[in-house]
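Q: Please design a sequence for this.
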């Protein structure tokens, strides 16, 4: 029997990691465990997994991304790591997974949802619309200019990954981050922009 649920950290995380690693790359398993899912903005309440006899066969990942439009804060549901196990494709399991997540997005109060790197012609049926083209530029190192740029570069000295994590996770409020570090003067030395 197929059921859709919000993923449970204990019960489903490893199943999700296996599914995405099998679909894309082995190192994703470690990447998801070490950060991309476990220690990130991954929204456990709004993401969805599809389960057959307890085994994770679909995954629809949602990240809680608050973006700014002018001075407004817009709650954006960033979609990532969307996959159905190869043995279960073309059976309508991803649509069930996605509709359940869309309902959860509404309940959770997201204003908008964004899918980056979307497979073509799939998400429109659920209401997403193409918004901007994605362009990749590849530049060979030898083609880069040698002269110094005419902008002032500043080096970001961050010896504390935890500090950056806190800012990104919102544990240190933006206001405090922009005004004054709540961690005191020591953190100013270890986490600072500096001229070079
Ligand atoms: C894209 C993906 C998630 C779709 O998952 P799915 O569970 O197979 O989704 P669906 O059930 O909607 O099936 C996809 C296709 O099968 C068709 N289909 C659905 N039910 C079907 C059925 N019972 N019989 C025949 N075809 C069916 C759908 O119409 C759809 O085809 P279309 O896109 O040409 O309309 C899956 O193919 C996948 O994991 N791909 C690899 C990873 C990837 O590309 N992820 C997306 C990144 S944005």
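A: Design:
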């Amino acid at each position: 029997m197929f059921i859709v649920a919000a993923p449970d950290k204990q019960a489903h995380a490893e199943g999700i990691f296996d599914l995405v690693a099998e679909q894309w790359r082995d190192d994703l398993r470690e990447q998801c465990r070490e950060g991309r899912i476990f220690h990130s903005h991954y929204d456990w309440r709004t993401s969805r997994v599809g389960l057959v006899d307890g085994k994770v066969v679909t995954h629809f990942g949602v990240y809680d991304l608050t973006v700014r439009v002018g001075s407004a804060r817009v709650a954006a549901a960033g979609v990532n790591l969307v996959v159905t196990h190869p043995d279960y494709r073309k059976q309508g399991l991803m649509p069930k997974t996605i509709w359940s997540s869309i309902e959860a997005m509404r309940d959770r109060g997201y204003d908008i949802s964004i899918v980056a790197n979307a497979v073509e012609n799939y998400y429109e049926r659920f209401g997403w619309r193409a918004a901007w083209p994605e362009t990749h530029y590849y530049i060979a190192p030898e083609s880069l200019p040698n002269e110094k740029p005419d902008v002032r570069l500043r080096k970001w000295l961050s010896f504390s990954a935890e500090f950056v994590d806190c800012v990104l996770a919102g544990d240190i409020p933006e206001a405090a981050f922009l005004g004054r570090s709540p961690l005191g003067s020591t953190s100013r030395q270890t986490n600072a922009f500096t001229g070079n």
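Q: Thanks. Anything notable?
A: The two ends are 61 Å apart (CA to CA). Residues 13 and 58 are 12 Å apart (CA to CA).
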